[in-house]
Structure of protein-glutamate methylesterase:
Amino acid sequence: MNKAKDIVLIGGSAGSYTLIVQILEALPQRFDAAIAIVIHRNPRFTTKIEETLSIKLRRSVIQPRDKTAIAPNIIYFAGPGYHLLVEPDWTFSVDVSERIHFSRPSIDVLFDTAAEVYQDRCTAFLLSGANQDGADGIRRVREMGGKAIIQSPDDALIATMPTYAIQANAESDVYDDQQIISFFRKLT
């Protein structure tokens, strides 16, 4: 299996799911990047996000396990209760270490580890949410040469996460929802 040379990350919490679905619906049929998504979800509740989206989108939407190769044209969702990490050999690993900003999976963990491996071939989007998770990860993506984009607080259903990230990362780009969707529509 070919490994993805580029990775696009999406981090969101409360209020982000609808926009994430719109993003995924806008994707071209084929793209060369891998997409990795962290949504804060409670492991005590069973969700069928991956299964539902696979059917709706007619494409691979999976929850990676340890040593899952990061492949192009695949959408990966962090499993509830597990941090999702990118390893130097371009595979995922999962981990149950402590919560970050009360969250596991943590957006910061995925963004930090992906930035280390993919560097300038990493693009990260931080969306709606009610805590500070993702702000440090956005900074790390930028420090490693990647592109960091924060959803406009005016468009976010819950503006806490994007507002905090903008305050902590003044150099990051801020996109409204239509700009975010347009980015994914043009993904190659």
Remarks:
- The chain has one domain: 7-185.
- Helices lie at 17-26, 49-57, 107-118, 135-143, 160-168, 177-185.
